[in-house]
Give the backbone structure.
Amino acid sequence: MSDDTLTLACPHCHRLNRVPTARLDAQPNCGQCHKPLFTARPVALGVDHFGDHADRSELPLLVDFWAPWCGPCQMMAPHFERAAAQLEPLLGGSAAKIFFAAGLLAAGLTSAITAPMAAAFAVCGAMGWKSQLNSWPFRSVWLVVLTVGTGLAASGLKSPQVTILIAQAANGLLLPVITIFLLIAVNRRDLMGEYRNGNLANLAGGLVLLATLLLGGTAIAKMFLS
Protein backbone atom coordinates (compact mmCIF):
# COMPACT_ATOMS: atom_id res chain seq x y z
CA MET A 1 0.00 0.00 0.00
CA SER A 2 1.30 3.42 -0.90
CA ASP A 3 0.51 6.53 1.08
CA ASP A 4 -2.41 7.47 -1.14
CA THR A 5 -3.81 4.17 -2.49
CA LEU A 6 -5.33 1.03 -1.03
CA THR A 7 -5.63 -2.42 -2.66
CA LEU A 8 -9.15 -3.81 -2.34
CA ALA A 9 -10.59 -7.13 -3.45
CA CYS A 10 -13.96 -6.87 -5.16
CA PRO A 11 -16.69 -8.70 -3.18
CA HIS A 12 -18.35 -9.72 -6.47
CA CYS A 13 -15.63 -10.83 -8.95
CA HIS A 14 -12.74 -10.82 -6.40
CA ARG A 15 -10.46 -8.81 -8.72
CA LEU A 16 -7.91 -6.61 -6.95
CA ASN A 17 -8.41 -2.85 -7.32
CA ARG A 18 -6.12 0.01 -6.35
CA VAL A 19 -8.26 2.82 -4.99
CA PRO A 20 -7.05 6.26 -3.87
CA THR A 21 -7.69 6.67 -0.16
CA ALA A 22 -9.36 10.01 -0.86
CA ARG A 23 -12.08 8.16 -2.82
CA LEU A 24 -12.90 5.50 -0.23
CA ASP A 25 -15.92 7.47 0.94
CA ALA A 26 -17.14 8.01 -2.64
CA GLN A 27 -18.47 4.43 -3.02
CA PRO A 28 -15.86 3.31 -5.60
CA ASN A 29 -16.69 0.58 -8.13
CA CYS A 30 -14.68 -2.38 -9.31
CA GLY A 31 -12.68 -1.83 -12.50
CA GLN A 32 -13.56 -5.34 -13.73
CA CYS A 33 -17.28 -5.83 -13.03
CA HIS A 34 -18.13 -2.17 -12.24
CA LYS A 35 -20.02 -3.17 -9.10
CA PRO A 36 -19.57 -1.41 -5.72
CA LEU A 37 -16.49 -2.39 -3.73
CA PHE A 38 -18.33 -1.65 -0.48
CA THR A 39 -21.65 -3.50 -0.12
CA ALA A 40 -22.43 -2.96 3.59
CA ARG A 41 -23.05 -6.68 3.95
CA PRO A 42 -20.98 -9.80 4.66
CA VAL A 43 -19.29 -11.58 1.74
CA ALA A 44 -19.48 -15.39 1.53
CA LEU A 45 -16.03 -16.66 0.49
CA GLY A 46 -14.88 -20.13 -0.52
CA VAL A 47 -11.42 -21.63 -0.70
CA ASP A 48 -10.93 -20.28 -4.23
CA HIS A 49 -11.10 -16.59 -3.32
CA PHE A 50 -10.39 -16.48 0.42
CA GLY A 51 -6.72 -15.68 -0.22
CA ASP A 52 -7.62 -12.71 -2.43
CA HIS A 53 -9.35 -11.03 0.50
CA ALA A 54 -7.26 -12.32 3.42
CA ASP A 55 -3.74 -12.09 1.93
CA ARG A 56 -3.73 -9.82 -1.11
CA SER A 57 -6.30 -7.19 -0.15
CA GLU A 58 -5.03 -4.42 2.13
CA LEU A 59 -8.38 -3.87 3.81
CA PRO A 60 -8.67 -5.21 7.39
CA LEU A 61 -10.72 -8.40 7.28
CA LEU A 62 -13.02 -9.82 9.94
CA VAL A 63 -13.55 -13.55 9.34
CA ASP A 64 -16.56 -15.47 10.62
CA PHE A 65 -16.42 -19.20 9.95
CA TRP A 66 -20.01 -20.40 9.73
CA ALA A 67 -22.12 -23.28 8.41
CA PRO A 68 -25.68 -23.37 7.04
CA TRP A 69 -26.69 -25.83 9.77
CA CYS A 70 -25.38 -23.55 12.56
CA GLY A 71 -28.37 -22.07 14.42
CA PRO A 72 -26.55 -19.18 16.17
CA CYS A 73 -24.88 -18.26 12.86
CA GLN A 74 -28.24 -17.96 11.13
CA MET A 75 -29.75 -15.99 14.02
CA MET A 76 -26.93 -13.45 14.33
CA ALA A 77 -26.17 -12.93 10.62
CA PRO A 78 -29.01 -10.45 9.88
CA HIS A 79 -28.19 -8.43 13.00
CA PHE A 80 -24.53 -8.10 12.01
CA GLU A 81 -25.58 -7.15 8.50
CA ARG A 82 -27.96 -4.39 9.62
CA ALA A 83 -25.51 -2.98 12.14
CA ALA A 84 -22.68 -2.95 9.61
CA ALA A 85 -24.88 -1.19 7.05
CA GLN A 86 -25.68 1.54 9.58
CA LEU A 87 -22.10 2.00 10.76
CA GLU A 88 -20.35 1.83 7.38
CA PRO A 89 -21.02 5.47 6.33
CA LEU A 90 -19.76 6.69 9.70
CA LEU A 91 -16.71 4.49 10.16
CA GLY A 92 -15.72 4.06 6.55
CA GLY A 93 -15.84 0.95 4.41
CA SER A 94 -15.82 -2.53 5.82
CA ALA A 95 -14.05 -1.26 8.93
CA ALA A 96 -17.57 -0.83 10.34
CA LYS A 97 -17.78 -4.59 10.83
CA ILE A 98 -14.43 -4.58 12.63
CA PHE A 99 -15.46 -1.83 15.07
CA PHE A 100 -18.75 -3.58 15.75
CA ALA A 101 -17.03 -6.92 16.38
CA ALA A 102 -14.52 -5.24 18.70
CA GLY A 103 -17.41 -3.82 20.72
CA LEU A 104 -19.00 -7.25 21.05
CA LEU A 105 -15.65 -8.73 22.08
CA ALA A 106 -15.16 -6.06 24.75
CA ALA A 107 -18.68 -6.62 26.08
CA GLY A 108 -18.14 -10.38 26.17
CA LEU A 109 -14.83 -10.08 28.01
CA THR A 110 -16.33 -7.66 30.53
CA SER A 111 -19.23 -10.01 31.25
CA ALA A 112 -16.93 -13.01 31.51
CA ILE A 113 -14.92 -11.19 34.18
CA THR A 114 -17.62 -9.41 36.19
CA ALA A 115 -20.36 -12.08 36.29
CA PRO A 116 -18.26 -14.77 38.06
CA MET A 117 -16.83 -12.18 40.44
CA ALA A 118 -20.29 -10.85 41.33
CA ALA A 119 -21.50 -14.40 41.96
CA ALA A 120 -18.46 -15.11 44.14
CA PHE A 121 -19.07 -11.98 46.24
CA ALA A 122 -22.77 -12.85 46.63
CA VAL A 123 -22.20 -16.50 47.60
CA CYS A 124 -19.35 -15.73 49.99
CA GLY A 125 -21.39 -12.97 51.63
CA ALA A 126 -24.44 -15.23 52.04
CA MET A 127 -22.39 -18.12 53.47
CA GLY A 128 -20.29 -15.97 55.75
CA TRP A 129 -17.05 -16.79 53.94
CA LYS A 130 -14.20 -14.37 53.37
CA SER A 131 -14.91 -12.18 50.35
CA GLN A 132 -11.29 -11.76 49.43
CA LEU A 133 -9.79 -12.38 46.02
CA ASN A 134 -7.09 -14.65 47.45
CA SER A 135 -9.39 -16.84 49.57
CA TRP A 136 -10.09 -20.35 48.25
CA PRO A 137 -13.93 -20.18 48.71
CA PHE A 138 -14.06 -17.00 46.63
CA ARG A 139 -11.83 -18.48 43.94
CA SER A 140 -13.78 -21.76 43.96
CA VAL A 141 -17.12 -20.05 43.35
CA TRP A 142 -15.57 -17.83 40.69
CA LEU A 143 -14.06 -20.86 38.94
CA VAL A 144 -17.30 -22.88 39.07
CA VAL A 145 -19.35 -20.06 37.54
CA LEU A 146 -16.73 -19.42 34.86
CA THR A 147 -16.45 -23.15 34.05
CA VAL A 148 -20.21 -23.66 33.79
CA GLY A 149 -20.60 -20.60 31.57
CA THR A 150 -17.73 -21.67 29.33
CA GLY A 151 -19.13 -25.20 29.11
CA LEU A 152 -22.56 -23.98 28.08
CA ALA A 153 -21.10 -21.60 25.52
CA ALA A 154 -18.96 -24.39 24.01
CA SER A 155 -21.59 -27.12 24.23
CA GLY A 156 -22.61 -26.72 20.59
CA LEU A 157 -26.28 -25.96 21.27
CA LYS A 158 -28.06 -25.23 18.02
CA SER A 159 -29.74 -22.17 19.46
CA PRO A 160 -28.93 -19.86 22.41
CA GLN A 161 -32.66 -19.84 23.12
CA VAL A 162 -32.25 -23.21 24.86
CA THR A 163 -29.76 -21.76 27.34
CA ILE A 164 -31.95 -18.69 27.88
CA LEU A 165 -35.02 -20.84 28.57
CA ILE A 166 -33.07 -23.01 31.02
CA ALA A 167 -31.93 -19.88 32.86
CA GLN A 168 -35.52 -18.62 32.99
CA ALA A 169 -36.72 -21.94 34.39
CA ALA A 170 -33.97 -21.89 37.02
CA ASN A 171 -35.02 -18.38 38.02
CA GLY A 172 -38.62 -19.54 38.20
CA LEU A 173 -37.66 -22.32 40.62
CA LEU A 174 -35.24 -20.32 42.76
CA LEU A 175 -36.98 -16.96 43.13
CA PRO A 176 -39.92 -18.19 45.27
CA VAL A 177 -37.53 -20.22 47.48
CA ILE A 178 -35.29 -17.20 48.01
CA THR A 179 -38.29 -14.98 48.76
CA ILE A 180 -39.58 -17.41 51.40
CA PHE A 181 -36.10 -17.64 52.93
CA LEU A 182 -35.87 -13.84 53.15
CA LEU A 183 -39.32 -13.54 54.70
CA ILE A 184 -38.42 -16.07 57.38
CA ALA A 185 -35.10 -14.37 58.05
CA VAL A 186 -36.53 -10.83 58.41
CA ASN A 187 -39.16 -12.10 60.88
CA ARG A 188 -36.64 -13.64 63.26
CA ARG A 189 -36.14 -11.45 66.29
CA ASP A 190 -32.75 -13.02 67.10
CA LEU A 191 -31.47 -11.89 63.71
CA MET A 192 -33.23 -8.57 63.11
CA GLY A 193 -33.98 -7.40 66.64
CA GLU A 194 -36.10 -4.25 66.60
CA TYR A 195 -35.88 -4.16 62.80
CA ARG A 196 -37.86 -7.36 62.25
CA ASN A 197 -40.84 -7.17 59.91
CA GLY A 198 -44.19 -5.83 60.99
CA ASN A 199 -47.59 -6.77 59.62
CA LEU A 200 -47.50 -4.25 56.78
CA ALA A 201 -44.02 -5.36 55.69
CA ASN A 202 -45.11 -9.01 55.81
CA LEU A 203 -48.13 -8.17 53.67
CA ALA A 204 -45.86 -6.53 51.12
CA GLY A 205 -43.54 -9.54 51.31
CA GLY A 206 -46.48 -11.85 50.67
CA LEU A 207 -47.37 -9.86 47.57
CA VAL A 208 -43.76 -10.14 46.39
CA LEU A 209 -43.88 -13.90 46.99
CA LEU A 210 -47.11 -14.14 44.99
CA ALA A 211 -45.51 -12.18 42.16
CA THR A 212 -42.43 -14.44 42.15
CA LEU A 213 -44.65 -17.54 42.05
CA LEU A 214 -46.57 -16.09 39.12
CA LEU A 215 -43.44 -15.04 37.23
CA GLY A 216 -41.66 -18.28 38.04
CA GLY A 217 -44.57 -20.40 36.91
CA THR A 218 -44.76 -18.38 33.69
CA ALA A 219 -41.04 -18.89 33.02
CA ILE A 220 -41.27 -22.63 33.61
CA ALA A 221 -44.39 -22.96 31.45
CA LYS A 222 -42.72 -20.97 28.67
CA MET A 223 -39.78 -23.38 28.71
CA PHE A 224 -41.95 -26.49 28.29
CA LEU A 225 -44.36 -24.90 25.80
CA SER A 226 -41.67 -23.42 23.53
Remarks:
- Residues 95-127 form the longest helix (33 residues).
- The beta strands are 5-9, 16-20.
- The first strand starts at residue 5 and ends at 9.
